[in-house]
Amino acid sequence: MSKKRIVFNWVIFGLAIAINIFILVNGFLNGEVSTKESDGFSKAAADVINSVAQDTITKENFPAFAGFNRKLFGHFLLFTTSGLTSTFAIHNLIKHPKLGKSYFVLAFAFGFGVVMATLSELAQLTTNGRAFSGIDILIDSGGFLLGALIVFLCLFVSEHKKKNIKVLQ
To answer: How far apart are CA 169 and CA 158, in angstroms?
Structure first.
């Protein structure tokens, strides 16, 4: 394995750890802080949308818009990113020739994603203004699974390209 590949693998591993720590730490934020952060993002997004299509996001529909953003960006896409980095890191850590190239890694990674989703929701039971949500676990797990599937699609395409190149040589 080349030095660049080793460095790349360690960078992905570090990103996976950082993203998952970020997820868990944010689970412990109290409701006011969490709402303030997500509403700030939603207000900026509403300003951009309203600059293109005036009065699309109004005071009346802003709470629904902010809730949608929270679920899409704060849950689904954040866990998609976790799924991408964590699955790639897990795949690279498992060097067994049969296990490293099988659905075991996908199942193991997805199990890790469900555990992370559950832990991030359980953390909210200990904070003021937050609540445990089974729906959020499903959204988080779905995002993680999407990230894991993207990694496996990329690995599958990469393996088939290598096999086709070997056949042509």
So the answer is: 17
Provide the pLDDT confidence category of residue 5 given band limits of 50, 70 and 90: confident
For residue 145, the enclosing domain spans: 3-168
CB 28 within 8 A of CB 104: no
Is residue 113 within 8 A of residue 82, CB to CB? The reply is yes
Measured distance CA(116)–CA(113) in Å, rounded: 5
Provide the pLDDT confidence category of residue 24 given band limits of 50, 70 and 90.
very high
Encoded tokens for 119: 């832990």
List the helix and strand counts (H, then E) for the chain: 6, 0
CB 38 within 8 A of CB 70: yes
Q: Count the domains in the chain.
A: 1
Helix orientation angle between 103-123 and 3-27, rounded to the nearest 10 degrees: 30
- Entry pTM: 0.85
